[in-house]
Amino acid sequence: MCLVAKPLDLPFDPIERAAEIWADRFGPADAMAAVTSIMRAQQILLAGLDGLLRPHGLTFARYEALVLLAFSRTGALPLRVIGERLMVHPTSVTNTVDRLERDGLVRRRPNPRDGRGTLAEITPTGREVVTRSTADLMAARFGMAGYAAPELGELFTLLRGLRVAAGDFRPEPLPPAGDGAGQAATAAPLSGPGTAASGSRRHR
To answer: What is the pTM of this model?
Structure first.
């Protein structure tokens, strides 16, 4: 699919217009408008992020895989684990690792714990590319420069509920009320490298 990255400069909001027509014909349009906005936002963000990463020879999907390997204790992970952590199909992982390997950013090696398994291991060149490309993404605030930190935290929390409902992960139970820990957990800032990857999904 070709993503429309350039400004469309329409004289009206097409999603808002669609919601008005939807409400007249089918009923409440809040869910439809929200979903359509999220889908369009994904297009905008992917196109922008891929544009930032293109000079480094990466797409955002390949960047996510490289960062995951860079974060791992040994710099290497089984392909199965990469798929689980990035929440993508095994075929997508294979294609991503194939491309990274061709570019010299990753190498495959046998898994010593599994005679039939394969590890993807980040190379020194791959680590250098992660450092340079991450600097560009951070400078652009991952395409979210128009939002303040509290707004980004609220957005993360809202979408996290959708992910929990879909079974992405099991959230940790909150401590019993009254011991102070629950309040601290609720007030903790929502940040960290895992939030970048998000979600997906993406062109390999």
So the answer is: 0.79
